[in-house]
Design goal:
The protein is α/β, with parallel strands linked by helices. The protein contains 14 helices and twelve strands. Strand 9 and strand 10 form a beta hairpin.
């Protein structure tokens, strides 16, 4: 019964199945009408003769005699053989394909259910792809939802990446994504209407979710915020990087440190151990509220090793860094990102053991006290 249901469902979806049904009807009509007008049989005997001939049973109770009758019977029998072969092949391939799809669906459902501490990326257009690159650089777990299957073809899935061909505006899709165990949702479809619906539905289902949304038009920013988005970014003024940082904001930590150039290598080693990244560096000058800041960006291991090698072996690079550190009395801060808060805290605790962390999420006044203290 189960296989019959699968077959009927396949016929509804597959045009090949519909064509097959039309062929069966044509052959039956050919056999019945031919039996009436060529074999001179009545309607009941025509149906009977057509079926036993197509099925290649041939009881022999009705025998074609004239050449035309024989030609008709042969063509009908050959049509029957071809039809049977087609039906058997179609049934086997359809049932096999559907069973494969069912197994694949169950595997996907299990993978989705096991995901946690991940980001959910709704929409994989130009902006979505840019956000994905930022997530990928930092080895973040991500579920990508995109309703156009061809956009997902080049994505390499692994334990940290799931590409789901689905419509994120549907409740049933959102409920599969473990949103309550995620680090946040990033909505980047090209339609502000879809973005609004996704944000609104997600907020209704999961009131504590951190939601970051794209707004294609600036006038829709306020609408998306009213719908429940924590952060709304307009690509008219920014891009994928800003969307990424808005999404990870709850999992960014601001640490203030005091150390010299010689400790940079140890600091990077500890952060690498916990898969954490320094997103920027802020140099604090006493009494000045806005620090001198520059973006570091994500460096892979080879880039980090190359940077440390330059510090150790290039006198000019080392002298320039030492001058900067001396100017700020070695007091500086970083925005630190990581896979989740657990690993961020582990990294910070180890940095504290090295004696280089002054504090976490310090205010300007607190940082200014440190710069004053060390200045004196």
């Amino acid at each position: 019964m189960k296989y019959l249901e699968i077959l009927l469902e396949t016929i509804k979806k597959d045009k090949t199945g519909i064509v097959g049904i039309l062929i069966i009807i044509v052959i039956l009509l050919y056999g019945i009408l031919g039996s009436i007008f060529i074999m001179n049989l009545n309607i009941y005997d025509s149906i009977y003769y057509t079926i036993i001939t197509i099925a290649t049973v041939g009881y022999g109770d009705i025998i074609p005699i004239t050449p035309l009758e024989k030609i008709f019977s042969v063509t009908l029998a050959l049509s029957g053989v071809g039809l049977l072969a087609y039906i058997v092949t179609f049934i086997i391939s359809s049932v096999t394909q559907n069973l494969h799809d069912i197994r694949s669906g169950r595997i996907m459902e299990r993978k989705l259910a096991e995901m946690e501490n991940h980001y959910i990326l709704c929409g994989f257009g130009r902006v979505g792809a840019a956000v994905y690159e930022e997530l990928l650089k930092r080895n973040q777990k991500v579920i990508i939802i995109e309703k156009e299957a061809e956009k997902l073809e080049d994505i390499e899935e692994n334990d940290n990446v799931i590409a789901l061909h689905a419509n994120a505006t549907e409740d049933k899709t959102l409920k599969k994504l473990n949103i309550d165990k995620s680090l946040g949702m990033i909505v980047t479809t090209g339609s502000d209407v879809d973005n609004l619906f996704i944000v609104l539905t997600t907020r209704e289902l999961y009131k504590d979710a951190w939601i970051t949304s794209r707004a294609s038009k600036k006038e829709n920013i306020s609408r998306l915020k009213h719908a429940g988005a924590n952060k709304v970014i307009s690509p008219e003024a920014s891009g994928g990087t800003d969307l990424y940082f808005a999404a990870v904001e709850p999992n960014l930590v601001h640490i203030t440190e005091k150390h010299g150039v010689d400790h940079i290598g140890k600091e990077m080693e500890i952060l690498r151990k916990y898969n954490c990244h320094l997103e920027n560096i802020e140099y604090h000058l006493h009494g000045i509220k806005t620090p001198v800041s520059r973006t570091i960006g994500v460096m892979d291991e080879s880039e980090e090793d190359s940077f440390i090698e330059k510090i150790n072996n290039n006198a000019n690079v080392r002298e320039s860094l030492e001058t900067i550190y001396s100017t700020v009395n070695e007091v500086h801060s970083h925005w630190l990102s990581g896979p989740d808060k657990f690993y961020l805290n582990m990294a910070i605790e180890e940095l504290k053991k090295e004696g280089i962390v002054l504090g976490v999420n310090l205010s300007f006044d607190e940082i200014n006290e440190f710069t004053k203290q060390f200045k004196e």
